[in-house]
Amino acid sequence: MGNCDGGNEVWGKMEVPMEEKKKIMLIVPMLHQGGFERVCVATARLLEPYYDVFILIFDSKDIAYDIKGLNVIDLHMGVRDSKIGKAVNIVKRSRAVRKWKRRLNIDIAYSFGPSANIVNVFSGRQAKIWVGIRSYMDMENQGKIRLFCRRADKVLCCSARIEEEVREKYGCGKAVTLYNPLDVADLREKASGEEPLLPWDNRENIIASMGREDDVKGFWHLIKAFSLVRREIPDAKLLLIGEGEFEEYRVLAEELQVGDGVCFTGLKRNPFPYLGAAQLYVLTSYHEGFPNALIEAMALGVPVIATDCLTGPREILQGENESYGILIGNMSPEKNLQADVITEEERLLAEEMKHMLGEEPYRETYCRAAVKRAGDFSDGYYTERLREWAEEAR
Q: Is it the case that residue 18 has pLDDT exceeding 70?
């Protein structure tokens, strides 16, 4: 839609909504590959039939999601590294967002992630302020959580555990739980729409995990456990899907003599064909909010093993009377890339992986359980809850 207002840029159908619908602004730093970025785009598409929806991003660098047809505002205010630069960015972004809230007569501004939440609460109260806590790591900054509880109209938590803590620790009655949406039909279509480019002719016994290169994902635990699996299942393979160079993990795999069995795919705009090629999905994070990739794997019928980290996996995998996947103890956050150091928790993980790959009836049980559970996290429920809260906002 051309440039406007000091270098800001708008893409989409129109700059100013003409119909008398509620106007909702979704604020997110970028639309690079990541969990809450995916949820932001999904939210825009789910709410678009009912409201005038705008996505406001701080920087459009490396957009990884399909935003065709959506109203997207780019502030062109990327990351600054220094403390002073970050403080200046908060001020500038907040002023720009305040201007857009007024210009578009926004009714509700819903932000995703800590930096967007800060800007949302500092950009004025001319619109209702909803902040999204998308990871348990967000809870580590108590000052920010107090600020959000004080200034936001609603605090949307991606897990019941986070909501409970926000309510109890901060006395915040505005906290609610909203699980991430999942379009199972679309996900399966994307998974079957193309052939994954894998380095192996034999596609049996593929173990997958998905996430960016980040210590919080605990990938060194997974590679070490995988090396133990290979001793008994020589054709086992490990597929790590996500953005990053993973150089130190490549070195670790070589030192463990399993380099030929590990594939680092890099960033994939459509990762689902790769995810669907697996016979097992493993999550080794020691922190999560609500792990989207875990649910996505389950929706594709891939059985899962996950750490019992602070939020997410337990709520997903443990029902009252049924288990939908294997939950193991949380993994140590202490990074250890020494190939000759294998911990007991890594040995226990390897045993679970061998059990899942080696016993077909056992694996099939968890395949069926995974698909069943994934159906509980539907787009319909997510949309219904947001619409209910939006109609209450006056």
A: no
Would you put residue 153 in left (φ > 0), alpha (ψ -120 to 50) or beta? alpha
Q: Cα 83 to the chain's mean position, in Å?
A: 26
Sheet-wide strand order for 8-11 = 3-4, 8-11, 71-74, 52-57, 23-28, 108-112, 128-133, 154-157, 175-177
Instruction: Work out whether strand 8-11 and strand 3-4 pair parallel, antiparallel, or are unpaired.
Output: antiparallel
Across 29-38, 247-256, 273-282, least confident range: 29-38
pTM above 0.85, yes or no: no
Q: Which DSSP helix (H) or strand (E) runs through 214? A: none
Beta bridge partners of 11: 72
For the chain, the distance separating the N- and C-terminal CA atoms, rounded to the nearest angstrom, is: 31
Q: Alpha carbon 74 to chain centroid distance?
A: 22
Amino acid at 35: G
Cα 305 to chain centroid distance, Å, stands at 18
Q: How far apart are CA 96 and CA 93, in angstroms?
A: 5
292-299 and 360-374 helices cross at what angle (nearest 10)? 110
Write out pLDDT tens, residues 146-196: 999 999 999 999 888 899 999 999 999 999 999 888 888 889 999 998 999
